Sequence to fold (201 residues):
Amino acid sequence: MESIASMVMEGAALERKSWSESLAFAGRALAAPRRFGAILPSGTELCRVLARAGGGKTLVELGPGTGSITRHLLKGLPMDGRILALELDPGIAYLLQKRLPDPRLQVRIGDAGDLAQWLGSLGWGPADAVVSGLPFQNFPKEVRTRILTAARDALGSGGRFVAFQYGLRLLPEFRSVFRRVHVLGPVLKNLPPAYVVIGRP
Fold:
């Protein structure tokens, strides 16, 4: 049984880790606000909703940042599962790989629009789910369409595209790419509150 002292020390370590990750994310986000779309990583409740919606054995995460969603995806991943995390920022990708040294996680520095090539280079088949933390509203329409199409084409039969959004302005675009789309939320415990959009090919 854990002593109270060890539990306090573990809690303090987790709190320091959480603050250091938030500061790292905030620093990068302030330097490139259009790329990140938020100043703080996703909250715990939003991460849980995304992980539940994006479960499976072969997963892709677009824009994992410092790994707030990645951790929850790994918790629900079977031992023989795998995750490809595509991050455009090299510094953030390095932090993610260092903080989550899980053999099931493959972190790559790359463009989400090139998803088919990344899956092919790993020798992986179609994904069960593509989970996105990308700020689509900050991207030009042609970039959004390219990424959404790449995500749809990477999914296997019964696969799901899962993304969070701070509004529903882009819902018609999601519906133009995916055959079926539905929305969860808003997740009020997140700051700011967010919707979870689920698309099926």
In short: Helices lie at 4-31, 33-36, 44-53, 68-75, 90-99, 115-122, 141-154, 171-177. Strands lie at 58-62, 82-87, 105-109, 127-132, 155-165, 180-187, 194-200. The two ends are 48 Å apart (CA to CA). The chain has a mean pLDDT of 85.
